[in-house]
Specification:
The chain is mostly helical and 331 residues long. It has a single domain, classed as Farnesyl Diphosphate Synthase (Orthogonal Bundle). The protein is 81% helix and 0% strand.
Length: 331
């Protein structure tokens, strides 16, 4: 009689053990599925990050920032939210496409430079074919966005700038002439032209002056970087100014170009759409930028802090212009 309770107890333990094993197996399977899902998500984010890095986001952001104020300057009334959004999106996509094509073309030279060897195409994280498909896709999307969401002129300027950057600057100028960044800087200066064309369908002289400010700012901005990475540019075969003419000549050119920004900013005082809210802070920061470049020329400061400040300079100048226009339009 004592045997039956014992057998029942053993059977219950056996059933509980099987149930527990089943639950553990299910839990283990669930953990494995979550780990697999996390791995897929991680892989996707890594790949997405690589494609994002192909677009040279800081340069594309610069073009967008310089396009924003002219959207509000080209008309006596504020632009619609849809026009602003589509113009900035299309501008970013077209600029990003140019950056992607640049990395495709320069993938072998990028691999020779420590500064660029980890770029997505140079490092092999993104293959040549998918990178090319990506670049053409975002260029087409950006062009269509500007053409239908803004104006054909804005789309034409953006596409022309991308073509100029890839075909003329990247393929021809950059590996051949010390003036590569001087001439090629035009491609990154078109933000004000795109914004003005998107808002009005035409171009006024103020848009060209703002284009000129970016054009004159680009050489001292870039040459401060080139001074730091002179040996790497030489190794890759790029005839940057410090490589060809040396540090002191480059530093004198940096100061000269920074001085040229003062009249370029000041001439906007003759515009009916620009006031003291822009002129005073912009002239002050331009003078300070020129002073920093003077210190570089006299070897009293390192170039890289001035390079970093030059990035801030653009945001301050065009930010002041944007804020002033907002106050005029909405107050």
């Amino acid at each position: 009689m004592r045997l039956f309770p014992y057998v029942g107890w053993v059977g219950a333990l056996s059933m509980n053990s099987k149930l527990m094993n089943t639950r553990l197996a299910a839990r283990s399977s669930s953990v494995s599925e979550r780990q697999a899902a996390f791995s897929l998500s991680s892989d996707f984010l890594t790949e997405a990050r690589s494609y994002f890095q192909m677009t040279k986001p800081t340069i594309s952001l610069l073009v967008v920032v310089t396009a924003m104020p002219t959207l509000f300057m080209a008309s006596s009334t504020a632009p619609s939210a849809s026009l602003v959004l589509l113009t900035l999106l299309g501008t970013y996509l077209c600029s990003s496409a140019a950056g992607a094509f640049n990395q495709i073309v320069e993938r072998e030279k990028d691999a020779r430079m420590e500064r660029t060897l980890n770029r997505p195409v140079a490092s092999g994280r993104v293959g040549f074919v998918p990178a090319t498909i990506f670049a053409w896709t975002i260029l087409a999307l950006g062009t269509l966005t500007l053409y239908y969401g803004a104006t054909p002129l804005a789309a034409g300027i953006a596409v022309s700038a991308a073509a100029f950057y890839v075909l003329f600057y990247t393929l021809y100028l950059k590996p051949r002439t010390v003036q590569n960044i001087v001439i090629g800087g035009a491609a990154g200066s078109v933000g004000p032209l795109i914004g003005w064309a998107a808002a009005s369908g035409q171009l006024a002289w103020e848009a060209w002056v703002l284009f000129g400010i970016i054009f004159l700012w680009t050489p001292p901005h870039f040459w401060c970087l080139a001074l730091k990475y002179k040996e790497q540019f030489a190794k890759a075969g790029f005839p940057m100014m410090p490589v060809v003419f040396g540090d002191q000549y480059t530093k004198r050119q940096i100061f000269a170009y920074s001085l040229s920004l003062l009249p370029a900013v000041g001439v906007l005082g003759f515009s009916s759409v620009v006031g003291l809210g822009f002129l005073i802070p912009s002239l002050l920061i331009t003078a300070y930028f020129a002073y920093l470049c003077y210190l570089v020329m006299k070897d009293r400061t390192e170039p890289m802090p001035v390079f970093l400040f030059s990035c801030l300079y653009v945001f301050v100048v065009f930010g002041a212009l944007f804020l002033e226009r907002l106050l005029v339009l909405y107050l």
